[in-house]
Specification:
Number of strands: 6
Radius of gyration: 13 Å
Strand content: 15-25%
Helix content: 25-40%
Distance between the termini: 9 Å
Order of helices and strands: HEEEEHEHHE
Strand order of the largest sheet: 5-1-6
Structural class: alpha+beta
Shape: globular
CATH topology: Outer Surface Protein A, domain 3
Largest sheet: 3 strands, antiparallel
Length: 112
């Protein structure tokens, strides 16, 4: 796992040549619930709530267990009508935001 949020943010960049190999999962210090196709997440450490729309909820469900960026992108491409370039760009942006809010971990194996 990376040691800081900055490293997580830097990981989610279109210029990261190893982005496909990143393993992502939900942070262990977050809890969530789904309501009407949307998800509410609580970061237990900060007490900050975040909300996800239906596509964000799909991604949140996919990262319940460790998954590579490449696998995550492939699944989004199967589930939604989006071009690969746009999917990668949007996924990077979304994951960067989750990392900034300490809601995900970038790991080299399994979640803590």
């Amino acid at each position: 796992m990376f040691d800081s949020i900055m490293k997580n943010k830097e990981s989610f960049s279109i210029t990261n040549k190893n982005i496909d190999k990143l393993i992502i999962c939900r942070a262990s210090k977050s809890i969530s619930t789904e309501l009407d196709g949307e998800t509410i997440i609580l970061n237990i450490s900060s007490g900050i709530y975040s909300g996800l729309d239906s596509i964000g909820t799909t991604i949140w469900n996919l990262i319940e267990k460790p998954i590579s960026f490449a696998q995550l992108c492939d699944q989004i491409l199967k589930d939604y009508d989006v071009k690969k370039e746009q999917c990668i760009k949007d996924l990077i942006s979304f994951l960067r935001e989750l990392a900034e809010n300490n809601l995900i971990e970038v790991i080299n194996g399994t979640c803590d």
